Structures
1.
Amino acid sequence: MSVAGTGKEPSPQEPLLDVRGLVVDYAANGRRVRALDEASLSVPAGGTVGVVGESGSGKSTLGAAVGRLLPPSAERVGGTVRVAGAPVFELAPATLRRMRRERLGMVFQDPVASLDPTKRIGAQLRLVLGRRADKRVLASHLERVRLRDPREVARAYPHQLSGGMAQRVAIAMAMAAGPELLVADEPTAALDAQVREEVLDVVFSLAADAGTAIVWLSHDLAAVARRCARVAVMYGGRVVEDGPAGQVLTRPAHPYTAALARSAPARAGHGARLEPVPGRPPTLTGPSPGCAFAPRCAFAVERCDRERPEPVRVDGRDVLCHRVGELPFTEPEEVTA
């Protein structure tokens, strides 16, 4: 299949998702806030990548930018986003809609808010599948996400569903067209633990069956370690460490990754106190002059305050740190428990 809007076949070596040097600002209270500060990320066809970091690190903005779904207050200042070779921010509206429909699925944190409250579930799913989809086809897609009574769900309105059911519906709609890439932004944050695992099982099993790549934006390091082949750690609007999940989360090379892993709830025994990341995340109004983590980093040197780190390749991962390879981190306990 040719790349939408380009008329060429995608190269086998070309990543399915390729984000390079993306800069996004928000207008807020008369000033500009920098949400992404030259963020870069690539995802191969069929890959599973977890994007982790504290609130405010830029995860959700990155996810929204992939589908050109940034709010009106946001502005792309620089950088590129390509999906299957197509430049997302340069596509004409009709071509963009086609790309979203045929190549890209999105699952958001609040499933009810992502559904139309005025339409029954079946009618909304039919809009994705096409008006010719009959009740049997609608039911089959709802069965795929393990809803017990799909015909009854198809007749319901969003407000009549539980949070877990609504999220399964949102997943069914996102996966109905067999997208090549699924972006899931904290899709289980509002669910209880048991339902959370069930919903994640649905997401990853459907994606595996369809060969769909996943970008999962999450705070849950333990779940990311279990389910994703790669992890990208975000801080200050940049990806500061990117590599195999098992290595990044158990043998971190960046000071922020090490601090994040130590603060993971899965590491704490019963009654034990977590070790939080010291300080607070930055609020940037422009490009960070140096390393954005420097004010919170116990290993920072003068260079870190004034010189932006560039990616360094080490142990099969890319790391944004001037002191990579020389820091005496104690390996955190496994976060897969």
2.
Amino acid sequence: MELELRKCNLSDLEMLLWISKKTFEDTFETDNDPHEFRKYVAHAFTRKKLKNELQNKASDFYFVLEKDELVGYLKLNQAGAQTDVKDKNSIELERIYVLVEHQGKKFGRWMLDKAIQLSKDQKGVYFMWLGVWEHNTKAIRFYERNGFHKFGEHSFFMGKDEQTDWLMRLDFE
């Protein structure tokens, strides 16, 4: 496996928009109300919103490439950009997605390892946390196998549909 992690910039906006929508739809569309899901995607993944996120100095997007082919992406947030915890001693792994055709190749594990290393390299960061939908048992098992544990819950709205995300964390030694 020869993967490359490349930090995104504004010139990556269109590709980031495409992979954000594609991976989210592939992962969650069949398990949600179609109308509420479409409304959510139309609101959550706009050029303007992603451009603002890319320009936020407390957030970093990374593309994962295999031989120059885009296979996935991830997003890390420092305290000011975090969606929930907002602890200056933590990093939020807000997004980590692999395109369907590249799943099952251990790319997710590689990406998680890179995200953990990037977080550990930040001075004063002692843990990583994330939110994962309570019904995404495959992802929950993946995170548990990699040392994360549940420490709370928060509501997530898919349109008007209130759902529950587990908050999970990995403490650095």
